[in-house]
Specification:
This protein is an alpha+beta fold. The protein is 34% helix and 19% strand. It has a ten-stranded mixed beta sheet, sandwiched between helices. A hairpin with a 6-residue loop joins strand 3 and strand 4. Helix 1 packs parallel to helix 6. The longest helix has 21 residues.
Length: 227
């Protein structure tokens, strides 16, 4: 990964730091991240693509992740990303207004072993659970088969501009070491897994599970899997 500039330049609310040049494994995971965005669109998990973001750890550049510049539109391209450190500093590419405010959510997830991709969405039904401050139970078998064998917990609402949200997410991850996703109260969903495509499939399955939980409620509610 290389950049033609040594420090970010701010213009119209955007931060830019030269061209992102990726090769080898780093280029491959960028391609997978773009495929993951396309998959989320195909599966209907991005009703509002501009209220979503995604990142992937760069295997050839330790301590760096690739994150989308602004939103996850269906026509996202290789030019629509920035490379940031785990401290949130832009070193290549570009970041749109507001992206830095969500970076901490991603970097906290990367502190968990085995996490190599993170996706945040406001998908309709999962976000309904976040609005209700209710966890999503692991009662839908495809969700369990995706590795989410415990309930998806909901972090208490905190403002994301002052560090309080980060502290809330950190505490929740410590309390739920086996979860691969968390709900952010009054906000949305944060999911993480070992790669972009597996994370996208997890997001889509969580959205499906949330929708089915809502449909099952008038029928007496979903029931735990009994083996």
């Amino acid at each position: 990964m290389t950049s033609t500039l040594t420090s970010p330049v701010r213009e119209d609310g955007w931060l830019t730091a030269g061209e992102v040049v990726l090769t080898g494994a780093d280029a491959a995971v960028r391609a997978d991240l773009i495929k993951a965005v396309h998959l989320l669109h195909q599966l209907g998990a991005l009703r509002n693509p501009y209220s979503a973001n995604a990142s992937v750890r760069l295997p050839g550049s330790p301590g760096h992740v690739l994150i989308n510049a602004k939103g996850l539109p269906a026509d996202i391209s290789e030019r629509d990303f920035g490379v940031v450190t785990l401290d949130g500093d832009l070193v290549a590419g570009r970041l749109g207004p507001g992206v830095r405010q969500v970076l901490q959510m991603h970097t906290l997830a990367y502190a968990r072993p085995g996490v190599h991709a993170v996706i945040h969405t406001h998908s309709l039904h999962a976000t309904a659970f976040a609005l209700a401050h209710r966890p999503i139970p692991p009662n839908y078998e495809p969700l369990v088969n995706r590795g989410q064998t415990v309930e998806i917990p909901c972090a208490p609402y905190r403002a994301r501009n002052n560090g309080d949200l980060g502290a809330s997410i950190t505490a929740l991850l410590e309390q739920h070491p086996d979860t691969r996703a968390v709900l952010l109260a009054n906000h949305g969903l944060l999911a993480f897994d070992d790669g972009p495509l597996s994370t996208a499939r997890l997001v889509a399955t969580i959205e499906e599970a949330a929708a089915l939980e809502i449909l099952a409620a008038p029928l007496g509610g979903s029931k735990p899997i009994v083996r």
